[in-house]
User: What shape does this take?
Amino acid sequence: MLELNNISFKVEENGESRTIIDDLSISFEEGGFYVITGPNGGGKSTLAKLIMGISELSEGQILFDGEDITDKNITERANMGIGYAFQQPPRIKGMTVEDLLKIAHKGDLPEEECCQYLADVGLCPKEYLSREVDNSLSGGEMKRIEIATILARDLKIAIFDEPEAGIDLWSFAKLNETFQKMHKEKNHTIIIISHQERILELADKIIVLENGKIKTMGTKEEVLPSILNQVNGTVCAIQGKELFNE
Ligand SMILES: Nc1ncnc2c1ncn2[C@@H]1O[C@H](COP(=O)(O)OP(=O)(O)OP(=O)(O)O)[C@@H](O)[C@H]1O
Ligand SMILES: [Mg+2]
Assistant: This one.
C-alpha cells in the first residue's frame, strides 16, 4: 500500500552534499505492523518526514495505494490518510486538548470518544480535556496528547516517532496495549520508530536503518535476536574486555 522506490534525501553541508537517506526501497503492506529501529542519526525521523511530505525527496518515488504521491504536500497526504506523530510534538497556544482531538477527527467527535482516546494513552480525561496545548504541559503529557490525536484520526497509515520518549512505565504499558488494540481492531498500517524492546516485540516486521540504508529487515523472530545480541555485545565492550559476554 505504501511503496518507497529508490528514495534518497541529501543535504548541503559546508558546500558538500551529505546523503541522509541512501537509495532506499521498502514496500509496506496494508494492515502490517512495522517497527523501524537503529542507531541515533541513522535516518529514521528523516524517513518518516519524507513519507509525510514534511521533507522533500532528492531522488526516488513514493506510491500510496498505487498513486504517485511524490509531489503531494503534507495536507494532501494527510487527507489521503497518512498520519505522523512527531518525535517532539509542537505546542499550539490558545487551543485546548479537546479542540485538537476534534480537529484531528475532522468532524464532530462526542466528548466520550475524546475521553476514550485520552484514556488510551493513559491520561485522565477529566483533567486534560480542557487544558491548553501550551508550555504548561510536560513533555510526556504532550507526547501522549499527540498520540491521542493520531488515534482520533481515520487513517490508513499511522507513523509514530519514538512514542516511548519521555513516557513513564505505567503509561508506556498502556500505550503498548493501545498499539496492539489499534492493530487488531482497525486495519491500519502502523509504522513505529522505536528503540524499545517491548515495542519491537509487537512488530510483524522490523527494519533496522543505519547510515540511511536498510541494515536488516525481517520478521521479529528473524531480526530481534541479532539486535539484542549486538546491543549486549556493545554495552559489554564499552565497559571493558573482561566483562565481554560471549
Ligand atoms: N535538514 C537537515 N540538514 C542537515 N542534516 C540533517 C537534516 N535532517 C537530518 N539531518 C541529519 O541526518 C541524520 C539523520 O537524522 P534523523 O533525525 O533522521 O536520525 P534518527 O535516526 O531519527 O535519530 P534518533 O534515533 O536520534 O532520533 C542526522 O545526522 C541529522 O543530523
Ligand atoms: Mg529520530
